[in-house]
Amino acid sequence: MKLGRWLWPGLILVGVALGGQSDGRGQPGHRQVAGLPPGFDAGAPTEPYAGPHPSRLERPAETFRFPIMLGQIGPSEPLFAGPKQYPFICDTASSGLGPPLADNFAGIGTPTDFAAAANGEKRTSGAFSKDCLAPTKAWYFYKPVGGEHFARWNGETEEVETVTVNGAPVPFIIRVEMGTINRFIYLIAALKGARELIDAPAADRWNRRLIYQFYGGVGIGHRQGRASVKAVLDDRREQLAQGYAVVASTGTTSRNHFDIWLAEDTALRVKRQFVALYGEPDYTVGVGASGGAIQQYLLAQNRPGLIDAAIAQYSYPDMITQTIPVFDCELLEYYFDVTDRDNRTWRKAEKRRWIEGFNASNRHESSGGLMRIQVTTRVAFMMRGESVPDRKGETECVVGWRGLTPLVLNPRFAHFESHLTRDVFEQVRWSYFEDLKRFFGTDARGYARIPWDNVGVQYGLRALQRRQIDPTQFLRLNATIGSWKSPADMQPEHYWLIDGGESELRDFSPWSAHNMNVGRNHEKPAPRFAGDLEAIAAAYHSGQVFLGRIDIPVIDERLYLEAELDMHHAAASFSARARMIAAQGDAGNQAIWVSDKAYDPTPKAFTAIDQWLRAKRARSQLSWAEARPETASDRCFDAGGRIMYKGDHVWDGDWNQLPTGACMRVYPIYANSRMVAGEGISGDRFKCALQSVSSALDRGVYKPVDMQPYKAQLERIFPNGVCDYRQPDQGRPVVVMGDKAVR
Predict the structure, then answer these.
(1) Which of 421, 374, 420, 422 has its CA nearest to residue 399?
(2) Tens of pLDDT along 117-168?
(3) What is the pLDDT of residues 282-321, one digit of tens each?
(4) What is the pTM of this model?
(5) What SS3 state is found at 29?
(6) Residue among 630, 625, 592 nearest 608 (CA)
(7) Rg of the Cα trace of the chain?
């Protein structure tokens, strides 16, 4: 397996539009969602969630009788995760389940040629599917001798690879079951039993260990998502050969949605289906990269017992706090490229790191989608009689994060627009926040409340303190950087060709500049964005923020990709660790593994987790730190898989104010824009407390630079004061998980 599978979308938003493959419009056989349920209202008001944290909630009893037998249909209504969302794009056909079952003849959802409706009614035309359900199916796949991938088994093939399970050789044949649960597509994979029938699976070759495979990406809801048998079998081939069973679902794939309640609801039911077929596992270990790692951290926090251990690959602590520095990226890139384009400093990408914090490289060469974006931008500006100076190299903000802000923030943009008729698309408000507005609540204009905030943020403060920029540059940056417009005021994105050519080339804007409030000079500073305090509180209350308190062992592993300017920066692992230390007093149940990109340590992580769990169960009175075997210690690997360094202090560094450890010297981490502005590595502060400019000057915030002569300009730029990072997040509730919040 490559750790990079199923990660965040990166350039998909504009890269596809500028020469890649279409996302569906005009493809043969492509069917669009054509209708919405009666009474659909995208602006229906809702209050921010202020109830108990999910870790304190009692879940309702199961109402569906498992198992789902072959040919039957799984539950479609979530057990506790709220009402079903519409529109909902079907992917049963592309997943191998065939067309979705017709469930209405009222034009709601996707047209289907399937003649049998879910209620048994027969109809050959005018049938639609709004819920994308499909009967459960199962197949056998085998690993051919000498073959690279699994293939469908017809029951007669003899050239089957042999594996050893429980000391006995067995044919490497996997029973794969697929169906729908909570409208999403689930998948179960386990070794074929010795005398099992396809409709009566046997557990005699299962080693009693279950893997829950989580997948990543950035989703804004409304998609069933495509399930891939090939991906699951390839990703977990080594563990399947050892007798592990694997479950997965498009409902626990964050590229389809980031509703952690719905992910939990779905994961619980997928496990219930598995248990009903095979029995209770000794333990369930989660594995997954990026958004798959986020789900593991949050589910371990919100629903103890769902998974017993986690292998969090390319982790972030959660989705929502990553938006805090990432939403700064395009604001800063626009400043460097356009507002301050005459400043030659920014023509070398590595100098942008002074302000952005994320890594940058003067040696990084653009290619593919990035190159097309740059060429298109240059042509668009030439058509307007303007120019964009060339720069040497690239930044993580561009390579890793370009396109993320529109997807997450703009209610008038969806990269899968081609799967919907124009009428349906225009009736819906799209974005991560709109998708979760039942938690965030709506504002007076009917749009989801937004927790993001940059009031008082002094961009580039550390660069000023280090004299990388002078006071005049610091003031200009903070006066003109501005913020994002309110989502209610945002316009469709100007991504040329992404909407079939309706945007003019001259309007092309990779920064989404038309949706920004920016300034041109520090005499009239651009407004900042004030985050909604109720939305911030709701993010904490609803379990969308990783607070750092979990009772399972975690191996947080990643390949080191800082040189590639990949979005999966290594600092995120230490953000999670810092939160765990703050909440628990220590992070003894988390090991951080980082490897050269040529070596994947995941198989060793499964072994270490197994040893860790068994050690803890043998001596339950021990803490996770006390029970941790040497094989699960912090460590770093070279390209050949050799452990270069390991132990308790190999990852010390600036993040915890200790001398730099051996692994940190080999694989250094970088900052982000909020850390450059004075924030710590935890990254869980949405809205900073403010202090007056006078107070900041008296405290020596700008030392060794004397900013007293610029006091009047600072006060004009920051009329409400500047961030005081000694104080906690102003939107965080005092009580979150039932205990007094650790600040």
Answers:
(1) 374
(2) 455 554 446 899 999 999 999 999 999 998 889 999 988 877 999 999 988 8
(3) 999 999 999 999 999 999 999 999 999 999 999 999 999 9
(4) 0.94
(5) coil
(6) 630
(7) 26
Strands 689-691 and 643-646: unpaired
DSSP string of 449-470? P-----TT--TTHHHHHTTSS-
- pLDDT score recorded for residue 522: 65
The pLDDT score that the predictor gives to residue 638 is 98
Phi, psi (rounded to 5 degrees) for 109: 95, -140
Give the Cα separation of 294 and 190 in Å (integer): 25
- CB 439, CB 538: distance < 8 Å: yes
Q: What is the pLDDT of residue 158?
A: 74
Cα-to-chain-centroid distance, residue 119: 37
| Residue among 548, 524, 539 nearest 452 (CA) | 539
Query: Residue 180: which H helix or E strand, with range?
Result: strand 173-181
H or E element, residue 575: helix 571-584
Q: How many residues are there in the chain?
A: 743
In this structure, the strands spanning 689-691 and 722-724 are antiparallel
DSSP category for residue 490: -
Cα of first residue to Cα of last residue in the chain, in angstroms, is 39
Residue 381 CB contacts under 8 Å (≥ 6 apart), including other chains: 387, 388
Q: Which two tokens stand for residue 427?
A: 């009736």
Q: Is the pLDDT of residue 114 over 60?
A: no
Single-letter amino acid, residue 175 = R
Q: What is the pLDDT of residue 589?
A: 98
**How far is residue 143 CA from its own chain's centroid?**
32
User: Do residues 62 and 389 lie in contact, with contact meaning Cβ atoms separated by under 8 Å?
Assistant: no
Structure tokens at 179: 């169906």
Distance of CA 106 to the CA centre of its chain: 35
Could you say which DSSP state residue 191 is in? E
- What is the DSSP track for 425-455? HHHS--SHHHHTHHHH-B-TTSSBP-----T
How far is Cα 12 from Cα 741, in angstroms, rounded to an integer?
38
> What's the confidence (pLDDT) of residue 378?
75
d(C-alpha 712, C-alpha 331), whole Å: 25
Omega before 67 cis (within 30°)?
A: yes
Mean pLDDT of 528-544: 97
DSSP state of 106: S
Q: Which residue from 78, 57, 100 is spatially nearest to 270, judged by alpha carbons? A: 78
Instruction: Kindly report, residue by residue over 631-689, the tens digit of the pLDDT.
Output: 999 999 999 999 999 999 999 999 999 999 999 999 999 999 999 999 999 999 999 99
Instruction: Measure the CA–CA gap between 738 and 540, rounded to whole angstroms.
Output: 12
Mean pLDDT for 360-368 is 85
- What span, in angstroms and rounded, lies between the C-alpha atoms of 278 and 691? 60
- Both tokens assigned to 124: 């050959």
Q: How far apart are CA 366 and CA 374, in angstroms?
A: 9
